[in-house]
Amino acid sequence: MVLLGEPNPSFQSAAFTMLAPAGCRHDPAGKAGLASLTCEMTLRGAGDRDGRALINDLDALGVDRGESVGVSQVSLRASGMAEALAPALEIYADILRRPLLPADQIEAGRMVCLQELRGIEDEPSHKLMQELRRQHYPSPWGLPSQGEIDTVKRLTPHDVEAFHGRHYQPGGAILAIAGGFEWERIVDLVQRLFADWEAPDEGAQAPPPEIAPVTHIPYESNQCHIGLAYDSVPYDHDDYFQAWASVGVLSGGMSSRLFTEVREKRGLCYTVSASLQSQKERSAVFCYAGTTCERAQETLDVTHAELLKLRDGIKQNELDCLKARIKSSLILQQESSSSRSGSLAHDWYRLGRVRPVDELSAIIDAITAESINKFLEGQPPENFTLVTLGPEPLESPVGIS
Amino acid sequence: MVLLGEPNPSFQSAAFTMLAPAGCRHDPAGKAGLASLTCEMTLRGAGDRDGRALINDLDALGVDRGESVGVSQVSLRASGMAEALAPALEIYADILRRPLLPADQIEAGRMVCLQELRGIEDEPSHKLMQELRRQHYPSPWGLPSQGEIDTVKRLTPHDVEAFHGRHYQPGGAILAIAGGFEWERIVDLVQRLFADWEAPDEGAQAPPPEIAPVTHIPYESNQCHIGLAYDSVPYDHDDYFQAWASVGVLSGGMSSRLFTEVREKRGLCYTVSASLQSQKERSAVFCYAGTTCERAQETLDVTHAELLKLRDGIKQNELDCLKARIKSSLILQQESSSSRSGSLAHDWYRLGRVRPVDELSAIIDAITAESINKFLEGQPPENFTLVTLGPEPLESPVGIS
């Protein structure tokens, strides 16, 4: 396990982010959703606390918490008063290492997972983007962590125990802490809590790729939801920030191209956006637009044209805006112990080190319109995946099929 | 206009929140949605900048912005690097006082408003809570700011100009600034930008109350969404924090009653929550639960029973958890210039003064299980408004009809 810390004496708060290599790509065949159910079950009692005592003790610390299950990792986050850090870490050591996984609560846990799955059916934009990810990335990299109703129904307490035993383990685990704390004391505490955590053997993976470039999901509505994706470079790639800046020109501020062309000039939709999402080994740009059925074809065509137009390069004034936005957001991030702990953990996971803020600033400063355009020449937006959700399919723009 | 400031030299960021008395309750009869369209149009050019220049200049400052139209107020927020504060304020003075409201962009602005309205049709939980607010508060206090498709279609450039002239005005406007800035310099700047802002005459209001205790919205889905509301006391009431604490016991942490009874023990749904929402003159608790149709009746019954059970009072350990949570969140809020500027503005609007954090801490410290229970005895949850959205209506619990 890796421990990262960024103590800052001016903070009265402290936060930590814990990543464990227990994401949904480790779900065994026919057991999709197991990573999510296991995460849900770990909070139902751990160490010498039953579920009630565990939740009460965490709440009594006033800790704001959150869990999420990604493709590769499960992420546990907590933030609160600096004094709450040590006792919260003690409880989280139990959650990770000694959860009770009570068999008599498996049905309640399963119901929560099924309710979440069914809830997505009622959120068309969520459903669409989930399908776009599934269609764009080869399996298991695009799988939704919630699994499927049929597979979740069949999961057993034994499955949960086996998954926990195999994947909640120190190899690949990262604990990152930021805010008001003393480094030496935290090192001692983490030593005591985690030094004897041992790794089990790991199993092998065999992902079968199967991808469709165009998918339509029939859905009764007067709205149509459009998703477009294309490959980009992952976070540890030398050109990552060139790719990231090119997407910043597409989407982000109100002067960004998609906002200007799709929303402001044509009023085609209320929401349009693009974001570069990087897993460790792969990365893609995902675009979303939601609009009425009558305007859906035009929205798709205009959005697609804007993506293609990136190949003609970006302008200096677009880059200036983007850099101002990035500088602002770096400063705001520095002023939050919670976002700092998340950055530390994700840097380590994706780079194998923490990138200091000064280095990041220097990288941003060095980006030029020329450097972005050179990148876009070598790796233009192409090989799109298109998913639409609405009453009727749309006509695919030339080049997507 | 009121200017509030909380300079903090340890911040590199700064943020402001501007409230202007131009919310949707000022929409004239037959013109619902005018406040929203006007807000959308103010950003399409102001002072000597056309729409493009205005957006570019704001983006070039790297400012993160947001606008929202409430019942009484329109709220404009911006945050970024401390150096961006003064130039951003200059632009916002133009937006508020000298927007171009270009007639040739009214159709694009209208389309954006219509797209937002139609988008809500596809988000059942949003649609439900909007209807619950409309049914619970007498008109115009529960009106959705987006208006209605028919009325938005009829709005003219003249309507927008008239609304701006009448409601974007200094009487009732509040500008609150927090983060890294010097108070004297900001006072000088704000003087220069706003000292000669004059108030027009204000019109009268005649809200006709019409409320139904139970409403069902037919919606084809295998999900059912449930909303329940009951009256509470507004922010400036002596008992506000007693009411707020009682809702904190219902919803918030994982040990809260609704989470425990509805989600954890019975697995009835993925999301269940209650929140105390206070306008200036009135306030209510709004509860939401989304679940599958088969479990909807049980979810409603259990949720309603938990609300009624508040009358039996709360326990000391529930209060302890709640207090820890509140303390944490106060500290986290102190560390964000953006949330501070929002708190300053809303305190002034609702209290006529800013409540110092120390005073707030003292109020929280003084809350006891007895003080909450005394409040609940005098003002128990009752006179519920129920709205459901799904394929079939549910049976109303005893006492709601």
Automatic annotation (TrEMBL), chains A, B:
Superkingdom of this protein's organism: Bacteria
Q: Which residues form the Peptidase M16 N-terminal domain?
A: 8-135
Q: Where would one find coiled-coil regions in this protein?
A: none
Peptidase M16 C-terminal domain span: 155-324
- Any Pfam family hit: Peptidase_M16
A GO MF annotation of the entry reads: metal ion binding
Q: Which SUPFAM superfamilies match?
A: LuxS/MPP-like metallohydrolase (SSF63411)
What name appears for this protein in its UniProt entry?
A: Peptidase M16 inactive domain protein
Q: Which organism is it from?
A: Posidoniimonas corsicana
